[in-house]
Amino acid sequence: MRIGLLTEGGYPYVSGDARLWCDRLVRGLGQHEFDIYALSRSERQEDEGWIQLPPQVSRVRTAPLWTAEDDGAVYGRRARRRFADAYGELAAAVCGGRGTADGSGASGRSGVSGSSVGSGGSVVSRGAAASDGVEADRFASALYGLAELARDEGGLVGALRSEDAVRALERACRAPGALRAARTARVPDLLAVAAHIERVLRPLSLDWYEDDGLDSVDLCHAAAGGAAALPGLLARHFSGVPLLVTEYGVQLRAHYLAPATVGEVPAVRALLAAFHGRVAAEVYRAAALITPGNTHARRWQERCGADRAKLRTVYPGMEASRFAEVGESAEDSGCADPDTLVWVGRIEPAKDLISLLHSFAEIRKEEPKTRLRIVGTPADGPAGATYLAHCKALAAQLFPDEAEGVHAVGDNPVSFEEIGGPEVPSLAEAYACGAVIVLSSVVEGFPISLVEAMFCGRATVSTDVGAVVEVIGGTGLVVPPRNPRALAEACVALLRDPERRERLGAAARARALELFTVEQNIAAFHGIYLEIVSHSPVRRVLVDEEGEPLPFGVPAEAHVPGRWTETRLMATGRPRWAAGAPVRGTAPLVAGEGA
């Protein structure tokens, strides 16, 4: 099977999102052939290069999302009219749609006559729901219209940043029924929105969809939603290639929860939320299957329009062998220090180390010998370093250096350490040095550090956020977030009961080995690939430049009766629109080059 793996800001680059699980997936499915189509997020990421690719990666094609160089496409009068019509429809669907962060929009257009009373007594508007469906179809038609224009004319970058695009946005914002927040948008706001839309829609201008590109794969697998999935949408639209979408972090959720940038006004935020909502809805509608990484992500996808029948939960796969020695030793000899709590992760406000430090102050009142080891590095940017400095200052204030006698050197019971230091040479050693692993987050997706602790056979105390309860499954203690007293009581209970710690740790390790290994992840995706291709294979009739069928161009198994897609003619010559390079992306690269 030939898989088109679609990524954004990650694999095959050395740094970025979804790099590890994509690499493990590709290496684990050596019986398949992979073509990588990667969108890069920064010049620095491209300069860092690729990881070493396995032999089953036949080629890699990349394109930048961080630069906005004009593609050089010059539109004639008819093309400009096509663009104006399609972009106007897209802008109208964004500005007039429902399902946004503030819930405004179509509610003002639906009358009482289109309403019904639900079982709970609430009024449910059938007219509003129907209107939302119409707007979704409107957005999809406009999106594919723009893609067809880019295919015919050679690109959209210049057009999407043009004055015509800004005027179309302005008309949509001023139209009756537009979002309330959008009506206040000024010209600088519209310019910012147009630039963001152009960046997200840049995959529409790529030359990836014909001439032995994504049209020749059996399945497109998007490693995320948003821009990463757009090439898969177009491959499905142009060539009928089925699309699989995996989201371990829901893109739309991340956009909603992202802090506002300096100077970002409500109109910009509302328009971008509506736009990303429309993109997500179309990706979910077009996908053959959607694989969230946990039930928490699954609920978000359902809320954002995903069909429940298409959802298959596939937990992320992690390397259990890295923690095997620590986990096995925990079963035999217990932990290194029965009076130590350990926190592991990236230091940032969402992890709520402030509450953890206040909780530790309560723990020290009950168990004075207890120590807290915080192992991790600050998040990128000045905010992470500032938060770390604030936590260190609070720790120094709450816990002055203590000494056993008047002639001894004082020591603070809270330490801040990094992986690779003399005290914590490896990640496994970080978990091995404590009796209880603590997670104090207020926002969390899939708690990777918690799974790592489970592989190490450690008892855990966690806050009830994200997928924590689903991951723990009764093998650890869970408390409400932002509740230092509850966190302290749970930690004290485990510190005082070593037998209970041992039982919970053993159960946690058994659960992690059953659910969260690389092997189960690979097996799940192997089965999903076969399921999708068996239900919606791409049947092609290959023809030469003269239009005659190529001998043996269709494999024998393509003639087996089943639910086949529409037969498509594929010329082996280069299509007219691809005679020149639509974008300044890199050419196809042979695996291993630039790694």
Q: How would you describe this structure to a colleague?
A:
The structure is a single chain. With 595 residues, the protein is α/β, with parallel strands linked by helices. The strands form four sheets. A seven-stranded mixed β-sheet has the order 8-7-6-1-2-3-17. Helix 1 packs across helix 20, helix 6 packs across helix 7 and helix 9 runs antiparallel to helix 10.
User: Major beta sheet, specifics?
Assistant: 7 strands, mixed
Gyration radius (Cα, Å) is 27 Å
Give me the count of strands: 17
Structural class: alpha/beta
Which word captures the global form?
Answer: globular
Largest sheet, spatial ordering of strands = 8-7-6-1-2-3-17
Give unreliable regions as ranges: 98-128, 562-588
Q: Give the fraction of residues assigned to helices.
A: 40-55%
Number of helices: 20
Describe how the helices and strands are arranged.
Blueprint lengths: L1 E7 L10 H10 L4 E8 L2 H6 L8 E8 L12 H19 L19 E3 L5 E3 H28 L3 H4 L2 H12 L12 H14 L18 E4 L7 H10 L3 E5 L3 H7 L8 H21 L2 E4 L2 H9 L20 H10 L6 E5 L8 H14 L4 E5 L6 H17 L15 E4 L9 H6 L3 E4 L8 H8 L3 E5 L4 H5 L4 E3 L4 H12 L2 H18 L2 H18 L4 E4 L24 E4 L17 E2 L5
Parallel strand pairs: 1-2, 1-6, 2-3, 6-7, 7-8, 9-10, 9-12, 10-11, 12-13, 13-14, 15-16
Antiparallel strand pairs: 3-17, 4-5
Helix pairs in contact: 1-20, 3-4, 3-6, 6-7, 7-10, 9-10, 13-14, 13-18, 16-19
